[in-house]
Automatic annotation (TrEMBL):
Keyword set, alphabetical order: DNA-binding, Transcription, Transcription regulation
InterPro entries per record: Homeodomain-like_sf (IPR009057), HTH-type_TetR-like_transc_reg (IPR050109), HTH_TetR (IPR001647), Tet_transcr_reg_TetR-rel_C_sf (IPR036271), TetR_SbtR-like_C (IPR049445)
Domain HTH tetR-type: 6-65
PROSITE patterns: HTH_TETR_2 (PS50977)
Source organism (scientific name): Nocardioides panzhihuensis
Name of the molecule in the record: AcrR family transcriptional regulator
Record GO terms (molecular function): DNA-binding transcription factor activity; transcription cis-regulatory region binding
Transcription in keyword set: yes
Length: 214
């Protein structure tokens, strides 16, 4: 890639993160182009679809989440690994305001590699949960889909209180404490059927939201 083309791409990605933080990941592509100071045609040359732009904008954060899961699976204490994974993902959601929806989004235009990565992530999470339960640290009725519920709950908090780091940390701490095994607790209701691919977010935003594709 030529130096000028690389600069244009970097400007587009920086503008996309800023616009997505302000208006959500369903913000018009033209708005991103204007913020980047490039033409819409230039934007589409680098990112032919909205999905590609959203994934490109948050590629670094997605890689961090993937590494956090690998680190959690490699941890000698599965509970510590589980806790660090939840804290890392929630911290990324808080720091990059457009990231929560991108993390939860289903991308119809995803490559086979991206789809396989999501499947691998679901398998890794299930493995981590089982290990933490086997040590007696994680409550037996915790279900891997509960992590999706955690992400949705934290996403809502970040959207409502984007600058309140204390609220974010407190919610995560409350949730993690509730996940610890305790024989005196009442059992939970049946788990949700959520998977990473069934979470109610797409690259167009949450259900009921519509936006121009311009």
């Amino acid at each position: 890639m030529r130096a000028d083309a690389r600069r244009n791409r970097d400007r587009v990605l920086a503008a996309a993160r800023a616009v997505f933080a302000e208006r959500g990941i369903d913000a018009p592509m033209a708005t991103v182009a204007r913020r980047a100071g490039v033409g819409v045609a230039t934007l589409y040359r680098h990112f032919p679809t909205r999905d590609a732009l959203v994934q490109g904008a948050f590629e670094e954060q997605m890689d961090t989440c993937s590494q956090a899961l690998d680190d959690a699976l490699a941890a000698s204490d599965p509970w510590q690994g589980f806790q660090q994974l939840v804290e890392t993902v929630c911290n990324l959601q808080r720091k990059e305001r457009g990231f929560p929806a991108a993390f939860l989004a289903a991308f119809p235009d995803s490559t086979a590699e991206h789809a396989q990565a999501r499947k691998d992530a679901e398998h890794g999470i299930m493995t981590l949960v089982r290990r933490a339960q086997a040590t007696g640290a994680l409550r037996e009725d915790f279900h891997p889909s509960d992590l999706g519920v955690v992400m949705l709950a934290h996403c809502g908090l970040v959207a409502a209180l984007p600058d309140d780091a204390a609220a974010s940390r407190r919610l995560v701490a409350y949730l993690l404490q509730s996940f610890r095994a305790d024989a005196t607790r009442e059992p939970l209701p049946s788990p949700t059927t959520l998977t990473l691919d069934s979470l109610p977010f797409t690259a167009d935003g949450p259900p009921g939201r519509r936006s121009s594709r311009a």
